[in-house]
Amino acid sequence: MLAELDLSSRIALEDIPEIDLYMDQVIQLFEKKYGSSTRNKEDKVLTKTMINNYAKGKLFFPVKNKKYSREQLILISLIYQLKGGLSIQDIKQTLEGINQRTESGQFELNKFYQSYLKLHEKNIEIFNEDVLKTEQDVKHEVKMLEADEPEELETILLIVSLINISNFYRKTAEKLVDQLAAKKVKKD
Q1: Which of 20, 36, 80, 141 could form a disulfide bond with 67, CB atoms 3.0-4.6 angstroms apart?
Q2: Taking Cα atoms as reference points, which of 170, 16, 177, 171 lies closest to residue 96?
Q3: CB of 60 closer than 8 Å to CB of 72
Q4: How confident is the model at residue 85 (pLDDT cuts 50, 70, 90)?
Q5: A single Pfam family, by name (predicted)?
Q6: What is the tally of structural domains in the chain?
């Protein structure tokens, strides 16, 4: 099951062209890289509406001549990763400083993104080990129940446990977003 998740799907720096892309090209890039990781084949990774909403919400700095720069593609990739666990407002808060520094030329977004990609790889290893350990813990708990249909109970308990862990991570991330916002208020 872990292999089916295709967790290694990502947009590497070498996947992002040096030239600016039109919206349709951006969508094609994301579909090519993340299409296999969607839950259903008909699900879209990214749509024009999503990109327009991200732009209107100021999740990345403004587009010039209807073309998206390499930095904007990196930011859209980060937004894609963040949207699974954070609200649009939290994503905006998280990326606001990076957006400002990147747009003004004070920040090398490429290096930051490369660091993110390294952590992404490490996180896959940690996640795989954690899921396998949780699965063993679940099997042990269900065995103690001496219940009929243990496979169904194992699946349900594993789902509940994984969602529980996911909520812990999401709540921690939300607290970090709140800390970012508090630090920004102090600066202003």
Answers
A1: 20
A2: 177
A3: yes
A4: very high
A5: DUF1836
A6: 2
